[in-house]
Write a structure and sequence with these properties.
mainly alpha; 434 Repressor (Amino-terminal Domain); 64% helix
């Protein structure tokens, strides 16, 4: 058998497997969100304007939804479309978490103020990460690190 068509028995995953995993991951995530919201598949189908069979296939990882479909599903689940985009691998996970998100959506701040706050916040996070790696150095006790 040629190398292109050889079965991989090592357990390693190739690019095709990773795409399939993304489909399963987003499907699992949508199912978890739906169950948490206590919404049936049929109800979400109506709320999102997506056919019941198609939504079922998405949840089972058989179909990978487009960004537009994810946006409709997010609306039906009343969650952010960005959260679904991150789960689906369309967007990278934002760095910083809820603090960064809160700064970005605060309409009382100008874009310049937001950027300054984000820069300061990130500098504190970097400094704290450096402090943790220094205090975790071998041969240094917690008391010496303080």
């Amino acid at each position: 058998m040629d190398p292109v068509h050889e079965a991989d028995t090592s357990g390693a995953t190739g690019p095709i497997d990773k795409v399939a995993d993304l489909g399963r991951d987003i499907g699992d995530y949508i199912r978890q969100q739906r169950n948490t919201a206590k919404i049936s598949l049929r109800q979400l189908s109506k709320l999102a304007g997506v056919s019941n069979p198609y939504l079922s296939q998405i949840e089972r990882g058989l179909r990978k939804p487009s960004a537009e479909i994810l946006q409709q599903i997010a609306k039906g689940l009343r969650i952010s479309a960005e959260a679904l985009y991150v789960q689906a691998g369309i967007l990278d996970e934002p760095i910083g978490g809820p603090v960064v998100d809160a700064i970005r959506v605060d309409s009382a701040l100008s874009e310049r103020q937001k950027q300054i706050l984000l820069d300061v916040y990130e500098s504190f996070r970097r400094e704290n990460a450096e402090d943790r790696t220094t205090s975790d150095a071998p041969g240094q006790s917690d008391m010496e690190a303080q």
